[in-house]
Amino acid sequence: MNFVALYFELCTLFVLHLVESRITKHEVQSSKYKAVRLKAQEKSCKDKMKLVSISLGSWLLGLSAILLTFSVIGGENLSAADIKSVTVMSLIIAALLFSLAYAPSLFWLRKRLGGCRPIAVFPLASALVLNLPVFLIGILAIGRTFAPTEAFASIGAFVLMGTAFGLGFVWNYQDRTI
Questions:
Q1: Is the Cα torsion angle 162, 93, 90, 72 positive or negative in sign?
Q2: What does each of the 178 residues of the chain score in pLDDT, given as a tens digit?
Q3: What SS3 state is found at 64?
Q4: DSSP structure string for 108-136
Q5: Do residues 126 and 163 make contact, with C-beta atoms less than 8 angstroms apart?
Q6: DSSP per residue, 68-122
Q7: Which of 7, 30, 34, 98 has the highest count of CB atoms within 10 angstroms of its CB?
């Protein structure tokens, strides 16, 4: 009987050891996968923040172009109400364009071309092709809600924003795998 009890105890210990090693292996693999997932999430978050930074920089460049044009052409100081209205309007339009047109289209173009080559395609696409709705709205609004100088200033600013966004996109994503 002693032999059977000893054999049963050894079998139990062996099974427990197997279960324990399996759990440890699973935990190790799970922690490796967690680390990989965390790195991927960090990279994704950094990419999104870079894209937001490129967008904000492009918008600020365009906003400064609009305000500079208005102050030079108007020949007088802009009021706080003028600055606020131009800022809010350009921010809303730019946010919509950056998130719904520029970024998805440039990612699609990058995937389609297999990278960011030729470099000039990306700023041209975001400056001219993706801004066609802005151009049409600006031109059609002349005489109704925009003076000609305001319409062409906003069109020029959006060309500048698109170019800056396209260049920032290429600068950020040119060396990355697709």
A1: positive
A2: 555 565 566 556 555 555 555 555 555 456 666 666 767 677 777 888 889 999 999 999 999 999 998 888 877 788 888 889 889 989 998 999 899 999 999 999 999 999 998 999 999 999 999 999 999 999 999 999 888 988 999 999 999 999 999 999 999 888 877 6
A3: helix
A4: HHHHHHTSS-STTHHHHIIIIITTHHHHH
A5: yes
A6: HHHHHHH-SPPPHHHHHHHHHHHHHHHHHHIIIIIHHHHHHHHHHHTSS-STTHH
A7: 98
From the list 115, 101, 88, the residue with the least C-alpha distance to 165 is: 101
User: Structural domain boundaries of the chain?
Assistant: 49-173
Distance from C-alpha of 32 to C-alpha of 50, rounded to nearest angstrom: 27
Determine the 3-state secondary structure of 147 from DSSP: coil
Report the distance separating Cα 18 and Cα 22, nearest Å: 6
Dist. CA 4–CA 45, nearest whole Å = 60
Q: How many residues does the chain have?
A: 178
Angle between helices 2-74 and 148-173 (to 10 degrees): 150
CA distance 156 to 18: 70
